[in-house]
Amino acid sequence: MKPNHKSYLLGVLSSVCLFSLWQWSSLPAQAIPTGMAMNNNPFFSWAGQMMYSASTSPGSAPSNKDLIITDIILTTASFCGSDGYDVILTTSGGAQIGMFRLSSGYGNSSSHYVSNVIANLNSGLVLPAGETLTISNNTSYQSCRTNYTISGYMAQP
Length: 157
Description:
Elements lengths: L4 H21 L17 E9 L3 E6 L5 E11 L8 E7 L4 E7 L12 E13 L4 E6 L7 E11 L2
């Protein structure tokens, strides 16, 4: 019996397709959140640094869209007191929407003090349409710096 090359290639191609489909179907679903604004770029990201006892306003929600903050990363790499300090997120309307605690009372072998907050918020924090986010910290140590990265998506109010 002479092998049929077309049948062989068809079998190999079918196996590759089935394997790829199996791999693809085993990936977790990545649903688009309900209410997400479907414009050109519904995502946002802000980053910056605050000095001690400071506040900053990294950005505002558009007048017609809420911003849903889903990811927050806060880091400090300097001594900010052994008791730590708070980082507070408020809206320009006065609502406190988040509070996180950073501590730097320990150092590694090269005297670097490190503290991190990495928050992945499933339901998110809402910055209402037209309002500005303010981030503040309450440390009094002059060498203390807080780095932040905040990201999320726009949604219909």
